[in-house]
Structure formats: C-alpha cells, structure tokens
C-alpha cells in the first residue's frame, strides 16, 4: 500500500500494489503535484491507482469548522 499527501489537499491511500507499481505511483504523484484543484485527475491516472484506491481523505483544515 501507499499514500499520497499534499498540504491543504485531499490525501489518497492505495492498496493492491506490487513491485511493478512504482512507475504508476510516480505518475500519480506528478499528476497530484501539478493539479490546480488538489485532486488527482481520473483521466490519465494509471489503472492500478484507479483499481487500488482504498480511501480519499479530506484535508485536515476542512475539518476545522
């Protein structure tokens, strides 16, 4: 499993990954880092990150209210 985090944005947890998933994680991290809305776009996301999405967690500052 792996998680992608970005300050002030939703966090993602992925499971069902294997030793070949490294490239997909790097691709997903690049998409996440360059997104303007803080979300990993579905289009262009590697299939292993579509199938393996376990959770999407809201940013902590969203929970302050």
Structure summary:
This protein has one domain (2-63). It is 28% helix and 18% strand.
Textual characterization of the structure:
The chain has 65 residues and is α+β, with helices and mostly antiparallel strands. It has 2 helices and 3 strands, in the order E-E-H-H-E. It has helices spanning 22-34, 47-51, and strands spanning 2-4, 11-14, 53-57. It has a 3-stranded antiparallel beta sheet. Strand 1 (2-4) and strand 2 form a beta hairpin. The longest helix has 13 residues, at 22-34. The N and C termini lie far apart (31 Å). The mean pLDDT is 93.
List the helices and strands and how they pair.
Elements: E1 2-4, E2 11-14, H1 22-34, H2 47-51, E3 53-57
Antiparallel strand pairs: 1-2, 2-3
Give the oligomer, counting copies of the same chain as homo and different chains as hetero.
Answer: single chain
How many domains? The number is 1
The beta-strand count equals 3
Which of globular, elongated, flat, extended, rod-shaped describes the shape?
Answer: globular
Spatial gap, N to C terminus: 31 Å
Strand content: 15-25%
């Amino acid at each position: 499993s792996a998680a992608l985090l970005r300050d002030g944005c939703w966090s993602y947890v992925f499971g069902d990954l294997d030793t070949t998933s490294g490239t997909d994680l790097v691709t997903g991290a690049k998409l996440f880092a360059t997104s303007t809305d803080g979300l990993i776009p579905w289009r262009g996301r590697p299939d292993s990150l579509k199938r393996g999405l376990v959770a999407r967690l809201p940013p902590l500052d969203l929970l302050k209210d």
